[in-house]
Every structure is written in C-alpha cells, then in structure tokens.
Design goal:
- The protein has 456 residues and is of the alpha+beta class.
- Helices cover 25% and strands 26% of the residues.
- The protein has helices at 47-61, 126-138, 166-172, 180-184, 197-204, 214-219, 221-229, 241-251, 311-318, 336-344, 355-362, 406-422, and strands spanning 10-12, 18-22, 34-41, 65-72, 87-96, 99-110, 113-122, 193-195, 255-263, 266-274, 279-283, 301-306, 332-334, 366-372, 377-383, 389-395, 398-404.
- The strands form 2 sheets. Strands 8-12-11-10-9-14-15-16-17-13 form a 10-stranded antiparallel beta sheet, sandwiched between helices. A 7-stranded antiparallel beta sheet has the order 1-2-3-7-6-5-4, with helices on both faces.
- The two termini are 24 Å apart.
- 40% of the residues are buried.
Length: 456
Amino acid sequence: MNAALPPGWVQEEGPDDTWVLAHPPVPEGHFRPNLVIRIGRNDGHPLEWVASTGLAATMAQFAALHVLSVDEWPKVFDPSLGRAVPGRRQRFVYQGDGQTVCVDRWIWVLGAGVVEATGSYALEDHTGQKTLIEYLVDQLTITGHGSNRIPDGADLDGNMDPRPDVFASEQRGTYLEDLTRVSAEQPYQPEGWLLTAAAADLLQNLQGRKKLGRFDLAGNRSAAAELVEAGLLTAEGHVTEKGAACLYPLTDPVARLSLTARRGNEETAADVWIGEGLALLVAGPSFFGPSSEPAYGPREREVRILPPALLPLVLASWAGVAPAWAMRHDPLVVSEGVFHARVASSSVPAPSAGEAEHRLWAAQWTSWDITHIEANAGFRWLHAGEAGHYSVIPADGGIRLDAQPSSLVWDAITRTVHTAATGAPLDLGADVPSAWLHARSLEDIVHRPGNGAPTR
C-alpha cells in the first residue's frame, strides 16, 4: 500500500495491517486529525454487508452519534487493472471526552480483503480537514489486489441481508442497501430547557437587563415561574449565572442564523445567536423528533446554550439530515405555487414525469431553509423522506428541485455556520461547488493512478 503524507504529517505505528497518518501535534485539549487505514479479510461477505454491519456496530458503540450520509465511492487502487472498485463512504459525528468529532469512513472490498480508511477531525476543523482527508484517500494505491465482484441490481430479493433499497438499486444497476432504518434510529432529541413560548419570549426580552421589574413579574407570573424553575431567574426576578449565559449571545451576537421548516399545515423554526465562544438556540419542535408530530407539549420552545462548534450537528439533526440515496433524474421544475401547495398537501397532482419523479412526489415533504441573517444568504432544501434530499433553487420563474446527497446538505450547513461565526463571506457558488452536487458512480470515474474521482 502507498499513501501520501502532507507536509508535517507523520506515519505512526499501528497494529499489524494498520497504518496511522497523523496531523502535526496540536495544543492540549484539541483533537489531532488523523487517517487510519486498515486491511482485513471479508470472509466472503460483499461490500454492502461489510458496510452495513460496520455502520450498525458503530451506532451501537456510541450513544451520542449522528450518521449524516452514506455515499457510493468507487476508487481506482491499481491502475494496471484499469477499473474502479465499488466502495462506500460513511460520514458521522460523535461526541466524547469533551470533543465533537467528524468521522469520514471509506470501505472497499478487494478480492478476499477489506480496505477501510477512517479520517477523524474536530467539527470546528471541518472546513480545512475534510477536503485534505479526501485528498489523502484519493491518493491511496494498492497493487495486485486481485479480482473484484461488481454487484448488480438484478433479481433483488427483499429478504436479502442487508435489505436492499430496491428502487435505488434498480435505478443505478447495483446493489444498494436500505438506509431508512438509520434515520429512524436517530431522532432529534432536545437537550436544552423546554419552555412555553411565553417564557422563551420573556427570557429574550431580558437582553441588556439584569432583572425583571415589578410590573414584568406581576404580568408574567407563569412565564417567570418557568424561568425560576429552569434556574435562569431567581424568585425575585434577578438573572442567574445560567440566565446570563443565555443572554450573552443574545445581547452581543457575532452573527445570527434562522431556520424555518414546513410540513403540511405545520411550521416550526429555530433561531440562533452566535457570541464569542457561546451560542444560544431557541427552537420549536423538530419534524424529525421521536414522534412524527412536531410537538413537545405545552412547553414548545427549546432554549439551549452550546459551543458554536456544536451548532452544525445540532442544526443538522433538527433538520433531519440523514443518509438517503439521491435519485437520478433530471431537475424537476414546478411553479412556486405548486411547490408550496405540495408541501402543504400530498393530494396535489404530480406533474407528468418519470418513475423517479413520481416517487419524489409520493414521499413525505418537509421544506426547510437556513439563512445567515447578516449576509442575507443561505440555502433552501426539501427533505423528501426515503426519496432523499433536494436543493430548492429559483429557476425559470418557478422552483427547480435537484436531487442531492445528504453529504452535500451537511457540508452546506457546516459552511454556513462557519462563515457566520468567523465573518467570512458566504459564496453560494464557491462554497457548494457543482462538482459536489451528485454522489459518485462508476461511470463518473476518471481512471488516473491513485485517484478515485475527477479533480474538484
């Protein structure tokens, strides 16, 4: 096996058949980016089985973990063989030891073996490290790795293990595992204080103040009592230390973000204020919580303080970002009125289109957007359940729906938060380049030595 080493990176010792490439040393308390490459045996199991069982084991291992995407990732390991090996990339984020860590894991089956490349980096380092880890993986070469089974989508059986996504498999002509259970096993879980709308509004009205006046207390007894119960106010109406932490980003924000989501006749929203080192989230119920209905009960606002670096993960979970195979069809263009009508009701007739478009139209639709307030810029998305994720773009006097991999949605959220927190400009074209817009496929591969895909 041959691997590239960026300047300053080192290769460290690992167990047999394991290579560890490590970032230069980082300050204490920071996560050190690394890429671990392992080679093992597949015991006769195909790629889809190896990838699915590995992901299930990872989800069982980490309690605080969110799986963001599963993508096809073919790669040329041996240029002398002249063909790409089918593969998977799995992206997830976990929390542990005070760190929030992004993991991008690639898996390929080569002959009787399995190659696994796992890149890990802190969420706050996503902007710099994600593309570097991707480059290192693209440069891996393994010669003489033997023959490879190229799976095909014919004669799929719903009882196969893992269960296939029959439609996606038939559309792409290869066996693709069903991903719907991943979403079902990671609902959004609020971790902040749950307050009524009146209490959340009362807290926000305290910005720039240290206490509630007599008339405020007298006129908002129930809401004030909630804030006292949450430890944000004293019984006399003074702001506590916890309350001051909530109000700090609100009073002196570096940037603000707004998310709005709609499904049927329901609408919910999340607002974020980013301060120096601390962020405030005030969110309504997520459509992707444990219940199919967006309801926390009478206390319908989540108020949470958190590090800004954690925001992309929390917002992605709130918006239901999870693995789904992007369907392959031409962009669907509909009028703005038809789009909003379809979000509101599944009874709106489908436009004349192919089977993939009809599958999209029959799915459960959740329209949502994320906006960086100061930049007046952001992204608009459609979450279409097992039909996948779509970018929503104004076009030709209407709306253009483009099928996108969930990895792109994750990168867009992360980039939006990063630019808001750092003050960097958000260029909607440059920050989500067109080369990222579609999952990789065998026919898209450019066969160059050590390179798994066209240069971005």
